């Protein structure tokens, strides 16, 4: 009976997502459900949180009950994020960016706020991006390296099996580099992989996959992170597992 109940829950999830026009999220949700449970993740770093969409999906659809630490540099969007997190005692928000240095930097606010980034838009973008991924404002933001921040957060929140999710619009590699040796403390990493980069100098999916492989993270799942831009894929998300923990998860 347990297997049939699980099948019904999965079909109900697919129906709900389809009714919201978000059926493309189904593979990601199912992959996260299995990964976070198998690796006993107790804290999720939500880097590039925007308005908290990912964190809310974790709570409502994935069923994650652990600590969520959300980072969002855009001060206006951070206000929305703060309101959404206010009623959740295990969801903590930070108005800053994670990068490969400790200090301040200029943060580019794009016409469509979900594209805002420490990076500049690339030339020659697809038409769908030209009016959305364009700088409309620049603000100063605090930046921290995960290497220096992680011990502080572990002391404050008492987690031991964190997972790193990044959606920093072309800046994910810098976040990983800023983690230094602390990166190996992550049970897994979810990163946005650019097939056709829309940010100047952004790391493409091959280079990012190779970089993570060299540091002990193996691919676990890949999926489109939006409805796609037929016929050519622009971006996808990848979940990578810490090889040192694979035997335990199996």
**CATH evolutionary superfamily:** Vaccinia Virus protein VP39
Q: How widely separated are the two ends?
A: 24 Å
Strand content: 25-35%
The major sheet is characterized as: 7 strands, mixed
Overall structural domain count: 1
Number of helices: 9
Helix content: 25-40%
Low-confidence stretches: none
Q: Name the overall outline.
A: globular
Structural class: alpha/beta
Classified by CATH, the class is Alpha Beta
Give the helices and strands as they follow along the chain: HHEHEHEEEHEHEHEHEEH
CATH architectural designation: 3-Layer(aba) Sandwich
Q: What do the pLDDT scores average to?
A: 91
| Cross-sheet strand order for the largest sheet | 3-2-1-7-8-10-9
Find the CATH topology.
Answer: Rossmann fold
- Calculate Rg over CA atoms: 18 Å
Describe what you observe in this structure.
By secondary structure, the protein is an alpha/beta fold. The protein has one domain (24-249): 3-Layer(aba) Sandwich (Rossmann fold), CATH 3.40.50. Helices cover 36% and strands 26% of the residues. The chain is built from nine helices and ten strands. The protein has helices spanning 2-19, 26-38, 53-62, 75-85, 127-130, 146-157, 172-179, 205-214, 246-249, and strands spanning 43-47, 67-71, 91-94, 97-99, 103-110, 135-145, 162-166, 188-194, 217-224, 235-242. The strands form two sheets. A seven-stranded mixed sheet has the order 3-2-1-7-8-10-9, sandwiched between helices. Strand 1 (43-47), helix 3 and strand 2 form a beta-alpha-beta unit. The longest helix has 18 residues, at 2-19. The protein is globular and about 55 Å long.
């Amino acid at each position: 009976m347990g297997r049939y109940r699980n099948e019904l829950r999965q079909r109900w999830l697919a129906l709900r997502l389809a009714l919201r026009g978000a059926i493309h999220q189904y593979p990601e949700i199912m992959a996260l459900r299995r990964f976070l449970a198998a690796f006993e993740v107790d804290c999720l770093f939500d880097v590039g949180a925007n308005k908290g969409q990912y964190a809310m999906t974790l709570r409502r659809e994935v069923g994650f009950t652990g600590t969520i630490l959300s980072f969002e540099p855009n001060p206006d969007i951070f206000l929305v994020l703060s309101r959404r997190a206010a009623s959740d005692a295990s969801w903590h928000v930070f108005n800053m960016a994670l990068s490969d240095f400790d200090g301040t930097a200029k943060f580019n606010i794009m016409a469509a706020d979900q594209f805002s980034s420490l990076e500049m838009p690339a030339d020659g973008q697809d038409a769908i991006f030209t009016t959305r991924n364009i700088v409309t404002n620049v603000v100063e933001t605090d930046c921290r390296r995960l290497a220096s921040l992680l011990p502080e957060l572990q002391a404050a929140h008492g987690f031991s099996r964190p997972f790193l999710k990044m959606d920093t619009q072309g800046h994910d590699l810098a976040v990983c580099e800023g983690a230094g040796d602390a990166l190996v403390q992550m049970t897994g990493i979810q990163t946005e992989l650019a097939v056709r980069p829309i940010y100047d100098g952004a790391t493409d999916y091959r280079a990012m996959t190779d970089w993570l492989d060299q540091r002990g993270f193996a691919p676990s799942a890949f999926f489109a992170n939006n409805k796609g831009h037929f016929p050519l894929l622009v971006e996808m998300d990848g979940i990578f597992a810490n090889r040192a923990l694979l035997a335990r998860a199996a």
